[in-house]
Backbone:
C-alpha cells in the first residue's frame, strides 16, 4: 500500500519526490539559459568590446556603442537592457572563470566585486552552510538589498526602500508610533527630534506644551532658566500676568524674595500710589459724601487724607473676611497686633490733627509709626 502524503509533507501541490524531479529539470534549463545569456554577452562584446578610460568603464557613454547594442537587441528580439547587461556580465566573467552550476543571475550580481581574483574565487565558494549560491546570498555578499529579508537590518533596509515615497513613509511612521513597545525602543535623541518635527505646527505645539505642563514629573525636570522663560512667555497677556502675580505674592517666601529686588519694590510702591489716586477718583465719583466734600474749600492734603481713610476701610473690607476659619500662627498674630496698634495710633493722630490743627508727632508715636 503506497505511503499516504499529508498536506504538511507537500511542496505547494506536489510531493517532495516530484518537487525534487522538477528542481532537477529546471536546473538543467537554468544552466542552458545561463549559457545562452553568456553567449549573447560574448557576441555583444564582439560587436562592441568594452573600452576603459582612466580606469573607468566608459563604453556605455559612447553614442556609437549604444546604437550598435540597440540595433543588435532589435535584430534578435531582446530589449536593449538585456543585451547591455549580458555584455557587461560576460566581460566580468571570461570563459574559463565562469562557475559551473552557478546561474547567470548570480554571476551578474557577483560581477559587482571589483577585484577579479576575489570575484572568481567567490563564485566557486558558496556561503558557509550552503551547497550552492542563491540570488539573495549573492546580493548579501555584495551588500545589495535582498528579495527575502531575514536579518533585522535586511528588513529595515527593505522598509526604507518601500517607504521612499513620503506619503507611504508618513503612514508607516504613524502606524509604528501607535505601538508602545516600538516607541519604547526608540533612542531618546530620536524621540526628541521626532517631537520637534511633529510640533512645527504652532497649534500642535501649543496643545502638546499644554499637556506636558500639566505633568508635574515633566515640569520638575525642566531647567530653572527654561522655567523662567516659559513663565515670561505665558504671562505676556496682562490679565494672566496679574492673576499669576497676585497668586504668587500671597506666598510669604515669594513675596519676601520679590521685595528684595529694588526694581520690583519700586514698581509695587508706584502701584500703591497709583491705586490711591484711582481710589480718590472713585470716591469723588461714587461716594455720597463727595458732593458735600466738593462744597468745602478743599486742599490736596484734605482729599488725600479722606482718600487714604476710604482706601484703608475698603481694603480691610476685602481682606478681613478672608480670615474666616483660618488659624494664624503666634508670629502672625504678633505681627498683626503690632500693625493694628500702629493703625490705632495713626487714627488718634488724625483725629487730633483734625480737631486741633496740631500735626506734631511725639517721639513714642514716631517710633510706633516707623515700626520700631
Residues:
Amino acid at each position: 500500500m503506497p505511503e499516504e502524503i499529508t498536506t504538511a509533507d507537500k511542496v505547494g501541490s506536489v510531493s517532495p519526490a516530484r518537487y525534487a524531479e522538477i528542481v532537477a529539470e529546471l536546473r538543467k534549463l537554468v544552466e542552458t539559459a545561463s549559457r545562452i545569456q553568456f553567449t549573447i554577452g560574448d557576441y555583444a562584446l564582439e560587436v562592441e568590446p568594452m573600452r576603459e578610460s582612466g580606469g573607468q568603464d566608459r563604453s556605455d557613454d559612447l553614442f556609437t556603442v549604444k546604437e550598435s547594442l540597440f540595433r543588435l537587441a532589435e535584430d534578435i528580439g531582446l530589449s536593449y537592457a538585456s543585451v547591455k547587461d549580458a555584455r557587461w556580465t560576460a566581460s566580468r566573467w571570461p570563459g574559463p572563470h565562469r562557475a559551473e552550476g552557478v546561474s547567470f543571475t548570480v554571476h551578474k550580481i557577483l560581477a559587482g566585486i571589483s577585484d577579479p581574483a576575489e570575484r572568481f574565487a567567490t563564485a566557486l565558494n558558496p556561503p558557509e552552510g550552503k551547497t550552492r549560491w542563491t540570488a539573495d546570498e549573492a546580493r548579501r555578499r555584495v551588500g545589495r538589498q535582498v528579495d527575502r529579508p531575514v536579518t533585522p537590518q535586511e528588513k529595515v533596509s527593505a522598509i526604507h526602500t518601500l517607504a521612499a515615497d513620503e506619503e507611504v513613509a508618513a503612514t508607516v511612521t504613524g502606524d509604528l508610533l501607535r505601538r508602545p513597545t516600538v516607541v519604547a525602543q526608540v533612542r531618546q535623541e530620536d524621540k526628541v527630534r521626532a517631537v520637534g518635527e511633529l510640533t512645527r505646527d504652532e497649534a500642535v505645539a501649543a496643545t502638546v506644551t499644554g499637556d506636558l505642563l500639566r505633568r508635574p514629573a515633566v515640569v520638575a525636570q525642566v531647567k530653572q532658566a527654561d522655567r523662567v522663560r516659559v513663565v515670561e512667555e505665558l504671562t505676556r497677556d496682562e490679565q494672566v500676568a496679574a492673576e499669576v502675580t497676585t497668586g504668587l505674592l500671597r506666598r510669604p517666601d515669594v513675596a519676601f524674595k520679590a521685595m528684595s529686588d529694588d526694581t520690583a519694590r519700586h514698581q509695587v510702591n508706584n502701584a500703591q500710589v497709583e491705586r490711591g489716586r484711582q481710589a480718590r477718583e472713585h470716591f469723588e465719583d461714587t461716594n455720597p459724601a463727595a458732593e458735600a466734600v466738593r462744597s468745602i474749600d478743599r486742599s490736596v492734603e484734605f482729599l488725600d487724607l479722606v482718600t487714604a481713610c476710604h482706601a484703608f476701610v475698603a481694603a480691610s473690607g476685602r481682606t478681613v473676611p478672608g480670615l474666616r476659619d483660618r488659624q494664624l500662627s503666634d508670629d502672625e498674630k504678633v505681627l498683626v497686633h503690632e500693625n493694628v496698634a500702629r493703625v490705632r495710633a495713626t487714627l488718634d493722630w488724625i483725629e487730633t490733627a483734625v480737631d486741633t490743627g496740631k500735626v506734631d508727632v511725639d517721639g513714642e508715636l514716631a517710633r510706633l509709626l516707623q515700626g520700631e
About this structure: The radius of gyration is 46 Å. The first strand starts at residue 52 and ends at 53. Strands lie at 52-53, 56-57.
